[in-house]
């Protein structure tokens, strides 16, 4: 089940610049503006559950299309579902969540659960990874919101695929797919046109649990071996390792790194760990800024908002939290964190909308909420 939440009534963000984003390269994005009233203890802005998608089994994965008009979910029931993003205007505090509007539904896309999914930066490709050790790569027509051609099946992993992400190769503008998981713990880079693996990167000694990319050549990975590693495709190996016994700037929490996220500028990394802690890391300064504890159980999902004002986290403690990163003007100071959503069971995935102050969450409770 995935959920999407938005600000209630008049507090819905209305000061965005005009223009809808139709691709990740759109020139006219809405301005994602920081709002301190979310953290106002006397009169806080709350989030409202807008729609809800139900499944027969836990919903594991969710991601917005870069254009923001649709989103995808994947579940243990082997279903890939594409849903329409609802209108967020005119909502009131009395709004009751309505069923999500399904556009497409692909049954039995894998032989086992859909564990992860991702859209390409341009929105013309979608990939799903599974516990059946395979990846399905599909072309998607943004104008018609429909799939095109036959899915490509990649059999490159010898264990469950735990995460995947796309990278736009800055040298020739082709799309690359980065994936990692269990088995040999390698990270594979595939050419999306041919499905051919072009790199198999070694380094992690535990399952690769999370991946994120930025800058056209850089990506980060989090692993069950408790390390976060930075990779540069031009180097062919990891260029920095943060671990409990890490660099002089300080190490990561002594707990598996379940999720990693980097802001658009490539300056700030946040990692979520199995013990419920979160690490903020200065990428350019190569130092740990601070570690704090936003959750009481495994921090399974972390995402920086499009302008990095807030950090959204989801946990096995059944809560979704928002941490204010701009309030103090210095990330070394104590940070304000508030609970902005809950599920009836463990939260597995959270993700921000590309332009709206809204997010998706998925859970073991078989729901995805917006």
TrEMBL record:
Instruction: Provide this UniProt record's keywords sorted from A to Z.
Output: WD repeat
Which SMART domains does the record cross-reference, listed alphabetically? WD40
Q: Where are the WD repeats?
A: 107-137, 201-241
Q: Name the domain of life.
A: Eukaryota
Q: Which PANTHER family match?
A: NEMITIN (NEURONAL ENRICHED MAP INTERACTING PROTEIN) HOMOLOG, WD REPEAT-CONTAINING PROTEIN 47
Record-given protein name: WD repeat-containing protein 47-like isoform X3
| The organism's taxonomic lineage, starting at the top | Eukaryota, Metazoa, Ecdysozoa, Scalidophora, Priapulida
């Amino acid at each position: 089940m995935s959920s999407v939440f938005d600000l209630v009534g008049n507090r819905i963000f209305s000061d965005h610049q005009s223009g809808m984003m139709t691709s990740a390269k759109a020139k006219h994005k809405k301005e994602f503006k920081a709002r301190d009233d979310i953290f106002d203890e006397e009169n806080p802005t709350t989030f409202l559950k807008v729609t809800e998608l139900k499944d027969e089994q836990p919903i594991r994965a969710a991601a917005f299309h870069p254009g923001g008009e649709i989103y995808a979910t994947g579940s243990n029931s082997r279903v890939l579902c594409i849903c329409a993003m609802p209108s967020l205007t005119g909502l009131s505090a009395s709004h009751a969540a309505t069923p999500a509007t399904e556009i497409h539904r692909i049954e039995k896309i894998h032989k086992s659960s859909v564990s992860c999914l991702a859209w390409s930066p341009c929105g013309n490709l979608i990939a799903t990874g599974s516990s059946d050790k395979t990846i399905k790569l599909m072309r998607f027509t943004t104008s018609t919101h429909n799939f095109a051609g036959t899915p490509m099946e990649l059999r490159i992993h010898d264990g469950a695929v735990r995460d995947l992400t796309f990278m736009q190769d800055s040298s020739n503008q082709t799309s690359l797919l980065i994936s990692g998981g269990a088995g040999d713990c390698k990270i594979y880079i595939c050419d999306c046109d041919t499905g051919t693996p072009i790199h198999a990167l070694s380094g992690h000694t535990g399952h690769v649990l999370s991946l994120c990319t930025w800058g056209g050549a850089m990506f980060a990975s989090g692993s069950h071996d408790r390390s976060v590693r930075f990779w540069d495709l031009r180097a062919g190996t990891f260029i920095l390792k943060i671990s409990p016994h890490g660099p002089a700037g300080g190490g990561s929490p002594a707990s598996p790194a379940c999720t990693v996220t980097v802001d658009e500028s490539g300056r700030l990394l946040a990692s979520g760990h199995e013990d419920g802690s979160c690490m903020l890391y200065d990428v350019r300064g190569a130092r740990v800024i601070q570690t704090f504890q936003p959750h009481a159980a495994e921090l399974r999902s972390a995402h920086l908002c499009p302008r990095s004002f807030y950090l959204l986290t989801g946990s096995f403690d059944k809560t979704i939290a928002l941490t204010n990163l701009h309030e103090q003007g210095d990330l070394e100071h104590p940070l304000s964190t508030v609970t902005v959503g809950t599920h009836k069971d463990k939260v597995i995935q959270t993700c921000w909308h590309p332009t709206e102050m809204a997010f998706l969450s998925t859970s073991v409770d078989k729901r995805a909420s917006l």
